[in-house]
Hints:
By secondary structure, the protein is an alpha+beta fold. It folds into 3 domains: 161 residues, Alpha-Beta Plaits (2-Layer Sandwich), CATH 3.30.70; 151 residues, Alpha-Beta Plaits; 107 residues. The protein has 16 helices and 13 strands. A 6-stranded mixed β-sheet has the order 9-10-8-11-12-13. Strands 2-3-1-4 form a 4-stranded antiparallel β-sheet, with helices on both faces. The chain starts with a strand and ends with a helix.
Amino acid sequence: MSIQIFLQGKLLGAREFLASAHSAAPGSDAESVFLGRSCWLGLLSETLPRALLSELGLSKMLLGSSGGMQFLLLLPQEARAQADAFLEAAAAEVETLSGGAVRLLWASTENLGDWVVVRRRLREGMSQRELAREGASGENAFAPFEPAEMPDHTAYFRDELVRPLLDGKVVGWSPETPARVLVGTGKYTWTLGPDADQIPWTRHVALSDDGQHPAGTEGLAARSEGSQTWAVLRGEVDHAGVRFRRAASVEEHIQLSVLYRQFFSGELEVLCSMPEFWRKVTILYCGGDDFAACGSWDALILLARELHRLFRLFAESNLKDFPGAEGKAVSMALELAAEGESLEAVHERAARTLEAAKCSARDSFAVLGRVLEWRQFNGAADLKDTMVKVARESGGSTQFLRELASFYREEVFSPVAVPRKREGELEKPWRLHRRVLRVLPPTRDKDLDRLRGSLIVELVGKNASQVKLRPAGRVALEWARLLTEA
């Protein structure tokens, strides 16, 4: 009986590749190129392992997991040399298409021993391949630098991926272009869809008003309620790597990969088909345990809240038998775009914000300048509703929202004069309490007066001598201000 081997592959350098989209195509084409690069990265880890199995004449049942810029295959020992040759050709074109930013690495090992041992051998083999690659590229490190002429592949990402994928349902692969994802053609083709024999692919794109092209960031900003601003939302499962390392068998590893991938691809596709999202949100990327989206800022906040609710139900139902809290929560980060800022710049900023949020708290949401636990964010959403109602029913004035926001800037986040003063605490809190009373609009309406009282309690507490401004209150203030100021 032939010995079987596991082959694992990964795409590295995606973040740097996406961050350089603007330099590759300055101007309006940069957003289409960014979308095309995201599609390529997401689909390449799906088509490559399937094409490898088809080239070797092997059953598609040997595909363990794919997507999220990595894949895992089970192959016969005799196919190792052919698989290496196939992936070497693909790796060379990957570097060509990405200008050297993206690297395809892989490793293989015998299916012998526990999965923990097999996984360690795969990791060591991949590290050795990376070191060998870096050593080969460093042989001429001290030679005079001569910039190489890199071919321009902007047309491929923009014209051959983004536009055809708006309506295309079939992707393919050909040996002449081993690292290209082809739409509607190829030696081997696969259908995009939710079925087991199809490639799961979340490709929702908010279209322009004529329905012919993807809506740009300016168009998405114009569809926002209140402030005409667009944003980028990124999310990632907390400690997913730890959860995968704790997998006791390859079956458990594959089960987790499939569960996460099906959740994000399926739920995002359904959510984005709803009326409040379908014209306001574009999915940039949907991986094995993370995602990225851009769109109207107000729609993305609601999308994040709903997706977190669904993930909590998903974890309670599908991950309850796995011990520990790792991989059972999701953190997200939302970054608003500044005037004139590019999509790749906001995307990169959201990535850094998400990393900082995951370091500070698990199961959190970095939004509007603060990192909140999800239960705090739900409270901020309710407080925002109160603020908006007070603003609109008291004559439509939003001046008091801006003055309330200034309390946080002046009292809490300015340089602290007293060393022992803790963040959020005030030296003379009764002064703030009185200022809040003066800022909130007076009213004789009982309902508004009750809302006014509850708003004061939520912001500064009941006791005028013990005041501590809450981060959730700051988020609610910014949220209400963005909604009420055009």
